[in-house]
Amino acid sequence: MKRELNNERTPIMDLLKVKKHFFKDLEKTPNDVIDPRHGSYTVYSPLELLMTSLLGNLMTIKTVTGVTESFNNNESIENFRRLVKNPELVEMPHHDTITDFLKELDPDELLKVRTGTIKDLLKKRSFEQYRFESNKQKYWLVAVDATGPHSFNKRHCEHCLTRKHVDKETDKETFSYYHNVLEAKLILGEFVFSIGTEFIENEDEFVTKQDCERNAFKRLSKRLKKDFSRLPICILADSLYANGPVMEICKSNRGEYIIRFKAGSIKTLDREFEEIKRLENKSITCNPIIEKPIGKRGRQGKGKTRALIERLHNYKASVCLFVKNFAVPFDNNLAERDIRMMKVKTKVSE
């Protein structure tokens, strides 16, 4: 029977296998969301509505209308019955039904579904090799960055962020309105999963100071701590986050951080970096190449100090590879331990 199933391999069979292995409780979490619809008017469960939308994304169908047109055939309906375990399903949900449901659904309910699936995925321990090791502790890498999905020429709502533009020639002022969102992405090799979302928006249109990415990060970090309290996280961020409060938040959550350094982002660190560069140039000046005596053959002597300085400078990319490739350890202790017993045996045999 198993051989026959393998011979009849189809995309829906592969999807069912992935669901069974990684997301055994996938149908439970969507049905636990608080359904805003009136019970007497509901035909489809939250699972069926959300799963239809999810399948549309998996099949890269760009419009909700396209989902209805593509899935409403006998073969798709039969496969969907097996997926949602509802043999009485007559037809797929219409796109208007899905749209109306998502409009009424509280966004926090969708976040619960996402958090549940991510936790199920991590429980399988299939991505342990992508964890970043620091101070004998392994962390999950989470990249944090903001994106602007919507912008308008007119105010869209009271929560819009506002940007002023001034024409240099005419001094005419114009305004644009936009909505930004801060995302936390879990990095697992070639895969990236969203595990946290925080909207950057004003409380109302009369605020004196607009919401910003850093304030959104404070809210996002609390959400991550609440949803993944036992998950050791290493935050990856750009130079905007190079400040004390962000680092303190990461430490207070028992996590780590890797923040891109940019000149001027942290003045004290900038001065230290420039001092290191000055010391490097000074070390080269203070350790000149030793002049070779007249008539002596061979390479010109440099001395151990000068040779080490030049080697570190010439092979800087290799020496600092651990900064870019987290699979490379910070030191060579592991290599030394691997050859230690062989060296001991060599000494004994001698």
- Most strands sheet: 7 strands, mixed
N- to C-terminal distance: 63 Å
**CATH class division of the largest domain:** Alpha Beta
Unreliable residue runs: none
Number of helices: 15
- Structural class of the helix and strand makeup? alpha/beta
> What shape does the CA trace take?
extended
Q: What is the N-to-C order of secondary-structure elements (H for helix, E for strand)?
A: HHHHHHHHEEEEEHEHEHHHHH
Mean pLDDT: 83
Q: β content, as a range?
A: 15-25%
* Oligomerization state: single chain
What is the third-level CATH name, the topology of the largest domain? Nucleotidyltransferase, domain 5
Number of strands: 7
Helix content: 40-55%
Q: Which architecture of the largest domain per CATH?
A: 2-Layer Sandwich
Number of domains: 3
The rounded Rg comes to: 29 Å
Properties at a glance:
single chain, 350 residues, Nucleotidyltransferase, domain 5, 15 helices
SSE arrangement:
Blueprint: H1 2-7, H2 11-22, H3 28-31, H4 46-58, H5 64-71, H6 74-84, H7 95-104, H8 107-123, E1 132-134, E2 137-152, E3 161-166, E4 173-188, E5 191-200, H9 213-227, E6 233-237, H10 244-252, E7 256-259, H11 267-286, H12 304-314, H13 316-319, H14 321-324, H15 333-349
Parallel strand pairs: 2-6, 6-7
Antiparallel strand pairs: 1-2, 2-4, 3-4, 4-5
